[in-house]
Queue: 4 jobs
Job 1
Amino acid sequence: MTRRKASETGSIGEVMEATDDRPVVRAMAPTLGELWSRRLARRDVLKGIGKAALLASASALPLAACGDAPDFAPDDIYSFEEVPHGVDETHHVAGGHSADILIRWGDPVLPGAPEFDPLNQSAERQLQQFGYNNDYVGFVPLPFGSRSSDRGLLCIHHEYTNDDLMHPGLVPAPGQNPLELFTREIAEISMAAHGGSIVEVVRGKDRKWSVVCDSAYNRRITPLATSMRISGPAAGHPRLQTSEDPEGRTVTGTLNNCAGGITPWGTWLMSEENFNFYFMGTPNDEAEATNHARIGIPAAFSYPWGRWHKRFDVAAEPREPNRYGWIVEVDPLDPASTPVKRTALGRFKHEGCENALTKDGRLAVYSGDDQQFEYMYKFVSRDKVNLKDRAANATLLDEGVLYVARFDEDGTGRWLPLIHGQSGLDETNGFAGQAEVLIETRRAADILGATPLDRPEDIEPHSVTGKVYAALTNAKERAAGMIDAVNPRAGNLWGQIVEMTPDDGDHASEIFTWTLLVKCGDPTDPATSAAWNPETSESGWFACPDNVAVDAKGRLWVATDQGSGWHAASGTADGLYALATGGDKRGVARQLFRAPIGAEVCGPVFTPDASALFLAVQHPAADGTVNFAGFNRRSTFADPATRWPDFDANMPVRPSLLVIAAEKGGPVGG
């Protein structure tokens, strides 16, 4: 999701966009570009023609290429009044809809938690309150097993912190390293604001939602205070053993949690994405040097937690990073349960763990590795899901096969199994067993010849059509000589969405077909080579797709994250868009929600009846506020670009979770 770049002025808590200044260099998969280049040759004639004709020409290919288009396309796919493009201090929602703040950073989560006091923060308080930069949102109906749309548990990730917006006084003097201003107290508040929150929510008779503040289900999960168990093939391996955990089977907390997933048995899958930004120091373990370098350690920027917690100092604990970068399974229905890191799903910068049942009842879990030129993965469990007995699935994610995707130029693709002893994943390449393959998943995928992608982020299977949608956010470092069929643009600031169709509609299949649903960017600017359905309006197109969700009408709901370069990518704030996936409307997008300045939109999730949509707004005031007319200064705690959502001079800007509903009832978006 969002990775901010530590700027020359040294903003605290801004995390570098992966590979912005250090692209991965390695042998690329065989070029896939010739076929796509032929298909797009006509784009050269688009310059100078009218908007409607340009839209029609640019959209023709993606809407018909590589595989059959879905036939799932209701006629009433767009019945809401669209939000226009723009940038200002507050949020906007489509006409006929409400967008209410449900919970904000610092609001009480645990029973008896103190109210938020921005001038008297402490780690003890933050451990009881809603964390920072809310990201993924999952909904578990209550009672479990029901289709309730009036009561449920929200499982919410807190990806990272913008500490300069959280704390007063974190403004460095000219030439000063901003990390020098950190204290142990600030570091531990930051740690307590990471992780996740579980909150019970209920819809009242007035149709408004609220948090049940005294719910026994409510829980905070953090890298400061939550013990976790390690399971699967890598559990207990020497490369996971540290001075704090000589057995390599327990670890404190989870880091940088982005998009996630909810399993059919109601557990919450937490991704661990840019975990490399939390490790400081220089590794002194030659055996781990290649491993650390491949994951991005040391990073150009790191949180200074290692000053006070030595597990984050790789000079002291060189194996500690191997204990992060996994998928964590949490049972939200049991607040006393111990979260489990499932190593069978591989170690990389996970974005998303959405899942679907295979034809024979096993579970397929899809995940992107969110960095330029990284890969797309799928895990398929060995055993079947037991839909009648939750407890029977307790170890389901410990056994199975992890695959990485290869996209071929003829519109087909293959999932390549990452199995020790096969295809070069053996002792000759430094893999003594399956544990090493999983610890160094990226290097194993390199050897198999997987397709490097333009930042693969959230991946969503469609429960009706069986198709799978993946957001490729951008890759501005992709050079002209590196383009291929699925990554067809050099200097890609805008991203694209890939639609995959598993062979025989089976998520267990190793074969799929694929096409590009849309190529994002401004379709009126020939330089972007964007491709949309011509019915997409001036406010409907978007850039940098990130999180996605699918509704019962087949619409793909796309949340965008343009990062600090939003002005280059689109010139408008991030938002939430409905994108048609079938019929004559295929490739038409409409904007339902627009975020306040500096924010991205994350984690869209519907209630079962689609009458409510929960949506996270992350890091308001943090992005794109420098050199923007009217906001031409860097945001700080005392002087943010916006004081959303409170607009109270005594309150800082606060990441928040909203609930969107149709004012007259019925499904969101009509």
Job 2
Amino acid sequence: MTSLTLSACQTASKIDTDASSSSLETVDAVEADIVDADPERLGFIDSVPVIDSSLEESTDPEANTEEATDQEPVVAVSKPKAPDDIWDRIRAGYQLDLDIDRPRLSSQLRWFSSHPSYLDRVSKRGERYLYYIVDELEKAGIPTEIALLPIVESGFDPFGYSHGRASGPWQFIPSTGQMYGLDQTWWYDGRRDIIGSTQAAIAYLTRLHKMFDGNWYHALASYNSGEGTVMRAIRKNRKAGKPTDFWSLDLPKETRAYVPKLIALAKIIKNPEKYNYSTYFIPNKPYFDVVNIGGQLDLAQAAEMAGVSIDEVYLLNPGFNQWATSPDGPHRLLMPVGKAKQFRTKLAEIPPQDRVTWVRYTVKAGDSLLLIAKQHNTTAGVLQNVNKISSSLIRVGQELMIPVAGNNIESYTLSSHQRLLAKQSRAPTRNRIKINYTVKSGDSLWLIANKYETDSKTLARWNSMGLADPLMPGQKLVVWLQPKESTNTNSTRSVMKKVVYTIRSGESLALVANKFKVSVNDIRSWNPKVASQKYVQPGDKVTLLINVVGG
């Protein structure tokens, strides 16, 4: 029964029965319904500089001929020349029946073929990963069309996170990720690990393919909505005497579009000229090499040793959440093939104690292990481990060794914390006012969203959360308030500006509200910190949204 509740990318609970519970908010989730490009759909990966071709240079190019080594006349044996472009290799491994004409498929074909810039963008995102994925699919005997599945799932954004709590390029939800060995800790999330998640996706898809007697479309539908959902739909049709092929099944709306998206992409890649598209060239050769690092390592230090940017290290190793690799492993880093040798050499030269930066901390009155860990951007478990403490009890005057980031924490731009800050700083539209909200005991996404006249899904998206993610007291959220329409009948238009006003001696919120022609309630909703005070004090700053045209 446990197996029937699994799915890779959809939550088992009915969080939102009408909307997708796995499609990303940061990439094109319902492609056929979108007309205009939306900046919100660009992933973090799009802000990273284009790939430097020098990073891809391999020191072991594949030989094209084999020669005899004895004294007899040499006979050159020609090997088939490998394609130069990864797309040619993908086409050669097609196995699915693409000779299909269905309205659901036609709508997806129209959308993808009319958005070539989107196809280019996701291709550039996937350039680092496609060779490895195709290689592993071929080894497993899986159709190479499946290499396009991360486009459907995440738009090849390894940091993609859905409101259904699915994460990574293959969009595993927490429970299915754990079933397939993808650990999820403060330090590391295996669902975003390129090697780990790809191996898990292959294992899960292989199991589904066998479960559905070799029917890949049923297997793919199950990957999206769970095998139990597809099995029930098949039994229902069988009982009613109806066909049980994918196109005849009564499946969730998202799943009904999911398989057609993959087929549409496969058809376009198979014959791009037919759809007036030219594929973005991706070399058919390894982009990265796997380096055994043997223990925890600061990622900024790794980048410096390899001679690459810190962003490049995170993009190849997106499973690491923090400023260093996880102390519990995996103890490996992916590095561009052209930089791996240099990285191995420099890694061998540094002593183990220099792999991360350490500080000596003396425990003060009022300290706790949890508080010290939070102050130093680590966990209580790590402090217990490195200081050989069996419990959370510490005493005043005790000295602790604490691993810390070697660089300024802001320089780790693609760490989990910095990605969240970047997401929370991006206004969804112009003239929105940003509210910093601190979660209180008893809060829920619904309660906070209702307070600020928005919805839970939108609030979760602003804060890179899933709808089922727990809220903790003290957690910082952002709310982007929509300015209300001006009630000034003398003004035919409004231009809203954000103003930060400093309270002066003798002023109250009522006086400020009257001065700027806004309500006291608006000021309180825009400034939760001030709203929690009984009185405002001279020097307090309040943020106001003012209609500068309407007076």
Job 3
Amino acid sequence: MSDLDSQLKELRRQAEKRLQDCKNDSVEIQPEQLAEQIHELEVHQIELKIQNEDLQRSQMELETSRDQYAELFDFAPVGYMIIDNKGRIVRTNLLSSEMFGMNRFQMAGVFFYTFVTKEYRRELFRHFQHVFKDQIRKTCEVKIALSDGTVFFAKMDSVVQPRGEKDKLQCLTLITDITKLKKTEVTNKQARQAAEDASRAKSQFLTAVSHDLRQPLQAMTTISDLLKRKLTDKKSLDLVNNLSSCLISMTELFNTLLNVSQLESGSIEPELKTFYANELLNRLDVTYRPLAMDKQLNLRVVDCSSALRCDPVLLYQILDNLVSNAIRYTDSGKVLVGCRRRKSMLRFEIWDTGIGIPENQREQIFDDYHQLYNPARDHSKGLGLGLAIAARSAKLLGQKIALNSWKNGSIFSIDAPLIDYQTNKSKKTSINNLENTKISTTSLLIIDDNSIILHSLSYLMESYGYKVTGTKSSHDAMAMIKDELRQFDFIISDYRLPNGETGIELIKKIRQTLGFNIPALLITGDLEMSMSQEFADSGLKLLHKPVGAEILNQHIQEIMG
């Protein structure tokens, strides 16, 4: 018997009792009172009838809603299950029974875990435990294996139904077949891994061949610089200058490709060091003053004694690209490189009086291969990767390159963290005052296993007035050092030497033999050498091949003080 029928039966019992009481008391009740009570009973009877009709209507609506819910549950376009707190299937809809290949009535009472592969059962048990304990919506993914051999991945979204006693709770679970999605994820992951492997292999290849490619570049650069100093015929000098320009372009393109490759592979991580801003500014001044003089530009690099805590290699790479870009796109006027303090940061600014950058191009210029005013794709103006490399390097440092431009000039800027630091500050040595430096009595020992580089570099440094001795092996170098008749003032060594030895090891042995730290520097074709711990511990100056004569000469004088 339903609750509604029970309520109606109880109401009838109470009404009959009241009517009987009225009849029992009718002897003592006056006719007027009796008529009044009969009227009240009739009204009460009508009220009961109305309530009965309302209850019947509510019951019909409830049954209709229940039927609609059942229809929605059974014919829903997604799989639904009702599962009790023991993990047993109470009820399933049509789609979920189709997914599991069973009659839904046969599934009733079956433990859901029997459909789940063993490696996912722990995840399933944890899922139901959280659903019934926390009584909030939970999601998990499981692998389903059916008796006919069908296997698929399913996503389960479960929530406890609000009705029911605590020990008889049930949850409504949405079952979604995500097999295609999982396959797509696997395919995408494999494709992404393949792309990363290819990028890493490309970077490793470029790094591996970097040394071998830089060797002939160094030889050609040294011979070109030597010819400039030896030749006097104007036509011959013009040819050599053209050759030198080609070598510079080749070196820039080569360095650009290697930088892009390293940044794309993610192999570069910032290595924070403490250093002075002047160390970078001096290098920029020495590197770009000859280029600015060739274009008859006024390059001004302002001293800055502030100390920084940053990655000097990445920061210099950014500034190098910004200054190079400023000179390349400035036909007349000046380029100014300076610094400003901004609270805890030092802002490097590069000003130029160049052609300016349209406002609608100020974001795109940091994209790969995007160049302004070079429709013919003249490679002498670069590949359009310099600013892209600078922007990626800035991102590694947690910074962003700022840009402001107008019709006749631009300002590029980048910030670096300041730090309080006191030591012997680097001295600025300009190319302009190198000619007054006395080098005629300086004796150089050059060690390089490449005969062409060794001989051409020896001849070149002799043209500057140095006394030069060259050798191809560390064994011969040590023999010369131990020879009391031979004395050297400075050592230039290639990093890679025969028999697996390094220039760092050789210089260390020479210093131990002599009993003092003879001035020395390294040259190398290994691009990543400057980021190694071995180099950081050596305290030596490192130059990357190809090294121009003026740059090499300047660093020798700077190290010798």
Job 4
Amino acid sequence: MKTPRTFLQRLRSYYALFTIGFAGFLIALAVLEQEGMPRVWIGHLFMFATIVLYATLGVLSRTSNVLEYYVAGRRVPAMFNGMATAADWISAASFISLAGGLYLHGFDGLAYIMGWTGGYCLVAILIAPYLRKFSQYTIPDFLAARYGGAGDSSNKGGRAVRILAVAATIIVSFTYVVAQIYAVGLIASRFTGVDFSVGIFLGLASILVCSFLGGMRAITWTQVAQYIIILVAFLIPAIWLSGKHTDNPIPQVAYGKLLPKLSAREAVLIDDAKEAEVRAIFRRRADDYDARIRALPASWEAGRVEVQRKLDSVKLRNASLLEIRAAERGLIAYPKDADAAAREWADARAQNLARAEPITPHATPYPGDAETSDIKRNNFLALVFCLMLGTAALPHILMRSYTTPSVHETRVSVLWTLFFILLIYLTIPALAVLVKYDIYNSLVGSDFAHLPNWVSYWTNVDKVNPLFSITDVNGDGIVQLAEITIDADVLVLATPEIAGLPYVISGLVAAGGLAAALSTADGLLLAISNALSHDIYYKIVDRGASTQKRVTISKLLLLAVAFIAAYAASTKPGDILSLVGAAFSLAAATLFPALVLGVFWKRANHQGAIAGMVAGFTVCVYYMLHTNPVLGGSAAGQWFHIAPISAGIFGVPAGLLTMAVVSLLTPAPDRQTNALVDYIRAPEL
């Protein structure tokens, strides 16, 4: 008699077949491209096929069971939970923006790699196993029970902590999910040709079909498939470029050989007279904007008259329709008043000053004079600190601790997660070096009359806020490095075309970026909706709600939050890495002290938790508002020259110190709370 296969064996078979089928799909599209299939069809096929795949998994995994909807029935094997968590973690910031950040900032960009991977060590050691031992559904659940009295988590203290934890979960997750949906719009607009805003809502449909129908169960099995796509999509271009430039197909090993060559090329460009000429032009432009700002409001009035005169002139001489429209656009784009002119000209001055800066060597840590170097080093360490502690407090990641069968499986799952993340994260620095070397040697120094096709593709993706631009500033017909601007969010998506790979690989990378954004967005939206439905509606509003009603409420709330986030993303609030960095600082400052002290310090009580969460959040938000120009602040208000993205460096100590002091000044927790702490800290037998 044939022995029935175990659940783990069946899963391995299913995903092995999926991988084989996906490989066959890629080969089929490659053959069709060789036979002349239009590129736009290939892009549409990739987008359509992957979205249909996720939708199918979502429909097959639909459920109304509370345990399945919130925590996937607590039966996800460690390896597959590790893959799902890795997909949840490898967001649009990691897949799309991180290599671009390393390309632009060199050594300084390694702070993201170190902070995010180091944070998982904290998750494994400090938090994940204890949450699994607690065996509930959400992070606010744990905090309310720990700080409200284990016997009755609905009392006044527990309720206040729960509400604060829900508020923190919503703010952190919402900030993060907006970045993911922004990335979905970017990818959809590039590979389907639709408007950016339309692309956002198309991607939203595929997000909802998973998380809305099946909750954590649907998201988990979809994320395993998404991780496979992410891994293949990221590794193929990196392996190709590695083989092209180093004759070694292992990019993680080979790129060290390329760094000296890149440094030599940088030295040539630093001494190039044409590069210096272009940078001098940008410096003069910055000086011109500075003079116009100082002469306000007269300079604004003179400029408006000049733009109007130019429009009248082209109309009087019967110029072509194109010239007339260009003059009209110039008048429309001109600042509406002197205040608007001050803001726009200040931004333009800053952009020109940035482009006038000399090349920063890629492998040089903290370049600059002694003072500048110290500031850069301090910001590097502060960012690593915030990303590590923020990782250890992200609600959508910690929720996955509840989905494994046991505490031991949770520990093993975190190990698998680190392994699957490192497959990508060890490749990211290599890809940044490989692409930079390719651009510095293939594009820089080439003729403007013979630019590669990918340049025109990417300059037309977003004409209002160009992601890539290249302009002959000094009019010599030759491309200088200073004449190229490339957004961090576009580098990975454009890598296959930069490398000269077939367009089918571009479609694959887009599918990988889409999978990264969708997998994280699914987890974030579920974290928000579960916090609202379980912790607010069920635990506070209606304790008698049926399981069916609780799941229905969660689905409706998920739908509402998704549309609000999509609208926020359509306004293009900032680059992806900045949004994500803000989310990590907020998570670290608000949730990390309460989570860690809740496990390791019995004296911590609900008064301390409330005070610590409020203090950490307040300090963090104040610093962001006070120092971020986008939020109305000024860089002059920075403390110790720390950038606003690392606001958690001040919020975390404020939260820890406040929580400790208030806890010591107020009554100790009751016996039941201490028993709960002993229980979650006791080794599992």
